[in-house]
Design a protein that fits this description.
It is built from 13 helices and 16 strands. The relative contact order is 0.09. The protein is elongated and about 110 Å long. By secondary structure, it is an alpha/beta fold. The N and C termini lie far apart (96 Å). The chain folds into three domains: 152 residues, no CATH class; 204 residues, P-loop containing nucleotide triphosphate hydrolases (Rossmann fold, 3-Layer(aba) Sandwich); 85 residues, no CATH class. Helix 2 crosses helix 3, helix 10 runs parallel beside helix 12 and helix 11 packs parallel to helix 13. The longest helix has 29 residues. Strand 4 and strand 5 form a beta hairpin. The chain binds adenosine-5'-triphosphate (ATP). The site of adenosine-5'-triphosphate (ATP) has 15 residues, from helix 6 and helix 12.
Length: 463
């Protein structure tokens, strides 16, 4: 062999390099199907990954040697799923399939005939099915679609724990992390004008049932709400009530830790459907049409040195108004569907008109100071009282002062009172009535004080 001329060596090496994998593939009797967590479309999470995960956990967890336990939805019973890097087997019509769950992307591609639904080299987690090639048809046409469908059904029927996401930057990469969403706010408990409340709930219901309508009129299935009003008027509480009504996840987007438009787009695309995306205190960030942004005076004049919105940085390192708008109603906004986008602000007049114009934010909701209708809801929530001798006086005082529902609620909270000795002889309803009397009398005093002070300082007075 060493006597062969160099050019024959080269030819031989070329031949071996080219044909060995193909020959190996030809003789490899197994087929692999890879389902990665990351879809082939950039950024988008692959929903098949969740489907197959649910299916395998349900079907095969009993036979797996390594399982993972996480706290369940009720906070008590653990939720058991397959651990990463684990093998399980499944049988279908006499054919066997070996499933492999991995938390790392494949370091090399098998030379075998790989059918990869989502062929990524660097996906973080994947499931891989391996089966004999003589079962190829039954596996691809029958087993896999059936397994995915069962998994999807399982996810749908599981009482899905809803989540509250927020974005953060571990290292140089912006990503979402989450905790269970457990805010108990509901529309029943929300103190606001009943007609106004009904308008909002009707709008949400129309949105929920509007899939066909949105498709018929050629609009993306999403809705934008701008919540504005003074501090403590219930903007955050309303968002929680909306999330509970819609049964959606909430993504609380902190714009100040988003580096640029590309990162904003990535975060947006990583959100799932049936979600509310919230940007709170949008007025705290000044946005102008030229794309220059800085943190407004409210958060420190001119922004800090590590502010990712620093206007001195070049365009590639900023979130611009146009970036924000494409997130709200541009081409990108349509991806995923069934999304609600909410901006909140205490100073609607400070916002760029491009951001607030009708059509962009479908509904502007003003959260206002506490008037008598809203007060009655709070009195019922906090004191279980629907009528009282002091109500007329309170109605008048609420009309005369600009008091936020948060301040009224604070006055209605049970104070840490030392029970009198003779309380033990009274029924619980008598004690509750006395507590209500005390709280309402305290509220009257506080409102009177606020009215006196408002004469000298006409602006809203904090109690
Ligand atoms: N309309 C309301 N109905 C019921 N509770 C309310 C209402 N407004 C305020 N509260 C009570 O006051 C607290 C503060 O309200 P919330 O955080 O929702 O106000 P906000 O308008 O979002 O305030 P900020 O603008 O300062 O963020 C809530 O925890 C809630 O208990």
């Amino acid at each position: 062999c060493s006597k062969l001329p160099d050019y024959i060596h080269d030819e031989l090496r070329h031949f071996i390099t080219k044909w060995t994998p193909l020959v190996a593939a030809y003789f490899n009797p197994y087929v692999q199907v890879t389902i990665s967590e990351q879809s082939d479309e950039q950024f988008r999470r692959n929903e098949l990954f969740d489907d197959i995960s649910a299916y395998l956990t349900d079907k095969c967890a009993g036979g797996a040697r390594r399982l993972k336990a996480e706290l369940g939805k009720d906070g008590k019973l653990p939720e058991i799923t397959l651990d990463d890097d684990v093998h399980v087997t499944d049988d279908h019509q006499g054919a066997r399939v070996w499933w492999y769950a991995s938390n790392k992307g494949p370091s090399y591609r098998s030379p075998g005939p790989v059918v990869s639904l989502f062929p990524y080299d660097t996906e973080p987690r994947l499931f891989r099915a391996v089966f004999h090639k003589r079962h190829r048809r039954v596996m691809l046409d029958d087993y896999l679609p059936g397994a995915l469908e069962k998994g999807r059904g399982l996810i749908a029927t599981m009482a899905r724990e809803r989540r509250l996401f927020t974005n953060h930057r571990p290292g140089n990469r912006s990503t979402w992390c989450h905790v269970p969403f457990e805010h108990p706010a509901t529309f029943d408990k929300l103190a606001m004008d009943p007609d106004h409340k009904k308008e909002i709930t009707d709008d949400l219901e129309a949105f929920m049932d509007g899939k066909q309508y949105y498709s018929d009129v050629g609009k993306a299935w999403k809705r934008g709400y701008l919540l504005h009003g003074p501090p403590g008027t219930g903007k955050s509480t309303l968002i929680s009530a909306m999330a509970n009504k819609l049964k959606y996840d909430v993504y609380d987007l902190d714009l100040t830790s988003v580096k640029n438009n590309a990162e904003l787009r990535k975060l947006f695309i990583e959100t799932k459907g049936k979600s509310i995306i919230v940007i709170e205190d949008i007025d705290a960030i000044e946005v102008d049409l030229a794309g220059n942004r800085k943190v407004a005076d409210k958060k420190g004049a001119g922004g800090s040195c590590c502010d990712p919105l620093d206007p001195n940085k070049d365009d590639g390192s900023k979130v611009t108004l146009s970036g924000l708008l494409s997130f709200v109603d541009g081409l990108w906004s349509a991806s995923g569907g069934e999304r609600v986008i909410i901006f909140t602000t205490n100073r609607v007049d400070m916002l760029d008109p491009a951001l607030t114009r009708r059509g962009r934010m479908d509904m502007h909701i003003e959260m206002s100071y506490c008037r008598f209708g809203a007060f009655k809801v709070l009195a019922k929530n906090y004191l279980k009282v629907e009528d009282h001798d002091l109500f007329d006086e309170i109605r008048q005082l609420l009309d005369d002062t600009d008091t936020s529902p948060a301040d009224v609620a604070h006055n209605l909270m049970p104070k840490c009172k030392k029970r009198r000795r003779d309380d033990s002889d009274r029924s619980s309803s008598d004690v509750a009535r006395m507590d209500a009397d005390t709280s309402l009398a305290g509220l009257v005093e506080t409102l009177k004080k606020a009215r006196r002070e408002s004469v000298t300082a006409p602006a809203a007075v904090k109690l």
